[in-house]
Write a structure and sequence with these properties.
This protein is mainly α and about 110 residues long. It has helices at about 5-15, 20-30, 35-45, 50-60, 75-105, and strands at about 65, 70-75. The protein has one domain (about 5-105): Orthogonal Bundle (Arc Repressor Mutant, subunit A), CATH 1.10.10.10. About 70% of the residues lie in helices and about 10% in strands. The longest helix has about 30 residues, at about 75-105.
Length: about 110
């Protein structure tokens, strides 16, 4: 991986590590636009101030956009959300393996 590629990965991870950023992307991944209030409910537990901050950051990163019908993922945001399903599949397998290892250790 080149230094430029490494820097891009770090930049993306920094954005996604921000509290609720991945939850916002996940909540919008079904392709249906959501109003601020609906998105707040979908994300769960996020304050309006925090959600507003995350939305500004995600919009600046061209992952989320806002239209007349609410917030939605951009094409780049949708691509990222599709790639996050790979992480979901990995997490599921990983969790099962941990549970089996814990059961064998007990």
């Amino acid at each position: 991986m080149s230094a430029k590629d490494h820097s891009a990965v770090i930049q993306l991870f920094d954005l996604l590590e921000s509290r609720y950023a991945m939850r916002v992307i996940w909540a919008l991944s079904d392709g249906h636009p959501q109003t601020f209030r609906l998105l707040q409910d979908s994300v769960g537990g996020v304050t309006p101030n925090t959600l507003n901050t995350r939305l500004k950051e995600l919009r600046a990163a061209h992952l989320v956009d806002h239209g007349g019908d609410g917030y939605r993922l951009t094409s780049q945001g949708a691509d990222l959300a599709r790639r996050m399903t790979d992480v979901q599949q990995f997490a599921s397998k990983w969790s099962h393996q941990l549970a089996r290892a814990a059961a064998h250790a007990a």
